[in-house]
Amino acid sequence: MDYHSPASFAEASALAANATGVTRFLAGGTDVLVQLRSELVTPDTLIDIKKIDGVSDITRNADGSWTLGVAATGAEMSEHPELGSDWPGVVEAMDLIGSTQVQGRATLTGNLCNGSPAADSVPAMVAAGVTVSVTGPDGTRDVAVEEIPTGPGKTSLSKGEVISAVKIPARGDNAGDAYLRFIPRTEMDIAVVGVGVSLRLDGDTVTEARVSLGAVAPTVLLVEDCAKAIIGSTLDDAALDALAAAASAACNPIDDKRGTIAFRTEVAGVLAKRAAKIAYARAKGEKA
Amino acid sequence: MALDDRKTDFTFVGTRPNRPDGLDKVTGRAKFGADMSAPGMLHGAILRSPHAHARIVKIDTSKAEALKDVKAVVTRADFADVPFKPGLAGEFWNVLENVMAGEKALYDGHAVAAVAATSALAARDALKLIEVEYEVLPHVTDVDKAMAPDAPVIREGAADYSVPEGMHPNVVRYHESGHGDVDAGFAEADLVLEDSFVTEATHQGYIEPHACLGLLGNDGKGELWCTTQGHWIAQKTCAALLGIETSQLRVTASEIGGGFGGKTTVFIEPVALALSRKANRPVKLVMTRSEVFRATGPTASASMDIKIGMKNDGTITAACGEFRLQGGAFPGAPGDMTAMCAFAAYNLTNVKQIGYDVMANRPKQAAYRAPGAPMGAFAVESVIDEMCNKLGLDPIEVRLKNAAHEGTKASYGPRYERIGLVETLEAAKAHPHYSAPLKPGQGRGVSCGFWFNHGGETSVTLALSEDGSAQLMVGTPDIGGSRASMALMAAEVLGIPYENIRVTVADTATLGYNDVSHGSRVTYASGLATIKAARHAVEKLCERAAAKWDIPVEAVKWENGCAVPSGPNAGDFDPMPLADITAKMGRTGGPISGHFEATPEGAGVSFGTHIVDAEVDPETGKTTITRYTVIQDAGKAIHPTYVEGQFQGGAAQGIGWALNEEYIYGEDGRLQNSIFLDYRIPVASDLPMIDTVIVEVPNPGHPFGVRGVGETGIVPPLAAIANAVSNAAGVRMKQLPMSPPRILAALKDNG
After folding, report:
1. A175 three-class SS
2. Quick one: pLDDT at residue B81?
3. pLDDT higher than threshold 80 for residue B2
4. What residues pair up with A142 in beta bridges, in sequence order?
5. Rounded CA gap, B158 and B94, in Å?
């Protein structure tokens, strides 16, 4: 196994482009090292991107948007004085992952690139409209988060491409987001269903919405029908029922050790309603 | 048998000092199974079957053996075909078959070969070079399917004489017991309820994986360090499997990171020794978590049918149960225990119970706290709860009306001596928890539970030092704070401070034979042995004082750590403290020690009653345990904090078993969830504060009244939680675990 710690993303990209066999980028390592130890994936090339300048920075840009380095950890996000007031759903989703120790290592980018449909931070990022910068042999391009995963353990990144930054849009006024997941326990578990909701209000009426579902299909889903069900409503019972129905209808889950098709389909609707109510309350400036 | 010298007033017993091993454990100084190393040590790794059931056609180890880092490879051929000792032949053969597969791999994870190499990584890599040719056979993992006529036969001829003719060869033991006339009893009933229940296998979930370091020479002399609940059984079993003399293998028990019954047998220890013998180097073996789940013993899974008759006033007129337990690809599922415990809490005129021990393609089951009892209690106490609901009766009143007491003929045969079931039920009824109002969406459940408890072979030595301190050697690994309890009991007899007594878990070369730390026996049996050994030492102390005072030894008694004249007629002498006697013992007759070697027989059965409140989310089926109270008879709590710890631990493990823990097998017979992420034991935030009430109805068979407390605490939770959940959800839950998908499906079916 070859280990590299490049000083720039261009260098990281070049190393990956020229590597043979299995290549993994190492940030927090909370998936890569676990897979290595359990012999699920034994990389031939390990490229540690933590030593690149600025990868742990969390920056609020002049336009109110945010740029997060790829090695910024869950703990750093949770402890940031302002990020959580702009995007409580994204921060809470990240904070749900693993233990206190894992929070000290785990990153949004790692959670995304692991390609799990059950990744907690991904539905929250999709709902929030987060994009990532992808650096490759041909330079850097911006890609929507929902375009990255293509199936369990698979991403759209091609050989030599590496995510070099995470960009969260400006929150703007009268808006809120939320993420809820279902687990049979209270923590330290993996989502059986996850739902992210981000919305904006004009008065009491929803004017913009993005709703995403996790763990109910081969990839995290951005469900337009869910957004349509609540846009233009005051999130009354009829809108919430329509939201739940749209969420359940969008599900394409599997029966496995973590849950059944029937359970996931039903609970996706339940969580969509609950998450939407929280996002709505946050948009109204209420504590939720 | 009652002891006439039972003590009732105590100085040290009943206090709560820090445990002597506590500092070592919180500072990392304690040595657990994987913490031992030796010069020249090799690292072992085990190749395991990926198939649930397969004939092993051929194993080619040549490529692995050719590696320079590999020093030994073993397969079943390397275990001598030794003549097993009479009486234990069957079980030794089963253990050997489990430790290393013979002609067939019998479950996913069954060991088929092992290597020892110069590093753990090299050993793991070498496994990939071992070529095994399998002929895959049909498999079965479900207990009811394993009994069906068309089920694949796991091993012909494994059944014993008890099994009625015509049963499938996978049924290997049969138990039937009871008394009275159940048909007549059902005819007297106002309500007869019959129902069926299913529980899935769960693992003990000890945090420390199995680990050992073995050294065995070609001269047949060996040393073994391992994490175990009983190093003498490890010694005896390893010696038998390797064809060496028992006494030539010295076994030392490490500190133990949990066992709960699962470390009462061997898995990797004989393999490490076989590798060591071949390599002529020490070999260390440490299991991964996945190996622990796949290849060590979970508890049995169960399928059960219950029929109970009750009068309108709550009197049970008859009870019947059939209990089918699956214990992996070997005999040993505790169908008999489940049957015998199921109705043991009740004073019944008519009762009948049948138990089956059934084999399936799963790992060999191991003991798990009160093995077999929790499943039976789940089925029986669920039916009683449902009958209380139907008849509008209070569940504690109904249990009190039918409760077993001193003199009751137990459902499994004998008459009870003094027992404390009624006292636990009265304490439950009086507890504020039982009358606390429930919120909407919440339900309350109660259940009783019973366990036999055990005595077992026990040796203890207590040696006094010149400075008046004492060292106590016990042979029962400390799995629940027993060193503290032993020191308290020795302090009570000797009359010296708790801190002046060092308790050591001695190795097999240092002390006589001891059965394993199981059967809730340690505080009872090693405790009794400690008291007797201390009294033995006190006799000698009194002899020395008598000699000094020149009075008969009968005229000396022991009081508050001193020899004193037994009365005014004995003479006028100042009390002689223990340290004054030991200071001169070299010149007054030599070292003073006390011993005990025997098999205490008066363990004293134990009962508990649990109260649980549960809240069910009707939209997701998720259960939250909102309040939990354990009430159990401890006889006499030597160290109340560790008694409470046992109560709370039983409830915590019961919550896991009831709600989320289960072995999940795929269609291919492979275990789907062999990591803690998907095998869902409760995390701390899943649990409420578990309140405890220690009831003390002294056991007449122990000098201080002790009853074991380690196991009874896991008997009531499954039923108590199922009753709470069923009452909260408004639908009877008959299958464990009551995971959210199952509860949500039951709610939907119920409309």
Report:
1. strand
2. 66
3. no
4. A133
5. 10
DSSP string covering B354-410: EEEEE--SSPPP---SSTTHHHHHHHHHHHHHHHHHHHT--HHHHHHHHB--TT-B-
In a domain, A219, yes or no: yes
Q: How confident is the model at residue B1 (pLDDT cuts 50, 70, 90)?
A: very low
Length of chain A: 288
Q: Give Cβ neighbours of residue B38 (< 8 Å, ≥ 6 apart).
A: B213, B215, B282, B284
* A30 and A105 inside one domain: yes
Residue at B98 is within a domain: no
Q: Are A18 and A154 in the same domain?
A: yes
Residues of A with CB below 8 A from B290's CB?
38
- Higher-confidence residue: A286 or A213? A213
CB contacts of B685 in chain A (<8 Å) are 185-187
pLDDT tens-digit series, residues B264-315: 999 999 999 999 999 999 999 999 999 999 999 999 999 999 999 999 999 9
Q: Please indicate, yes or no, whether residues B485 and B526 belong to a single structural domain of this protein.
A: yes
Structural domain includes residue A121 = no
**Shared domain check, B504 and B566:** yes
Task: Report pTM.
Answer: 0.96
Q: Are residues A148 and A208 in the same domain?
A: no
Interface touch B677/A190, C-beta < 8 Å: yes
Q: Which two tokens stand for residue B66?
A: 């050719």
Query: Per the structure, how many domains does chain B have?
Result: 2
Give one DSSP letter per residue of B163-181, joined into a string. Answer: SPTTS-TTEEEEEEEEES-
Is residue A125 in a domain? no
Give the structural domain span for B478.
455-598
Partner residue facing B745 (CB), from A39, A186, A262: A262
- The pLDDT assigned to B85 comes to 53
Q: Is the pLDDT confidence value at B5 over 90?
A: no
In a shared domain, residues B745 and B610:
yes
Across residues B235-259, what is the average pLDDT?
96
Q: Across the interface, which of A39, A185, A257 has its CB nearest the CB of B672?
A: A257
With beta carbons under 8 A apart, name residues in chain B contacting A184.
622, 659-660, 680, 739-740
Q: What rounded mean pLDDT belongs to chain B?
A: 96
Residue from B127, B617, B620, B683 to probe the interface with A (highest A Cβ count within 10 Å): B620
Domain of residue A231 covers: 175-283
The answer to whether the Cβ–Cβ distance between B619 and A38 falls below 8 Å is no
* Mean pLDDT calculated for residue range B116-140: 97
| Nearest chain A CA: its distance from B398 CA (Å) | 34
| Pairwise CB contact (< 8 Å): A260 & B745 | yes
Query: Cβ of B660 under 8 Å from any chain A Cβ?
Result: yes
The CATH number linked to B723 is 3.30.365.10
Alpha helices in chain A (DSSP H): 9-18, 32-37, 74-79, 83-86, 88-95, 100-103, 108-113, 121-128, 224-230, 237-250, 261-283
The residue among B327, B453, B445, B378 whose CA lies nearest residue B715 is B378
pLDDT per residue as tens digits for the range A5-16: 999 999 999 999
Q: Are residues A40 and A64 in the same domain?
A: yes
How much is the pLDDT for A60? 98
Phi, psi of A100 (to 5 degrees): -55, -40
Q: pLDDT tens for residues A212-227?
A: 999 999 999 999 999 9
Predicted ipTM beyond 0.90: yes
Q: Are residues A154 and A189 in the same domain?
A: no
Answer yes or no: do B541 and B560 share one domain: yes
Domain count, chain A: 2
Residues A241 and A109 in one domain: no
Is A48 in the same domain as A148? yes
Name the domain boundary from B578, B598, B618.
Answer: B598
Instruction: Tell me the residues of chain B between 621 and 650 that have a Cβ less than 8 Å away from chain A.
Output: 621-622
Mark which of B598, B631, B661 sits at the end of a domain. B598
pLDDT at site A13: 98
Together in a domain, A158 and A187: no
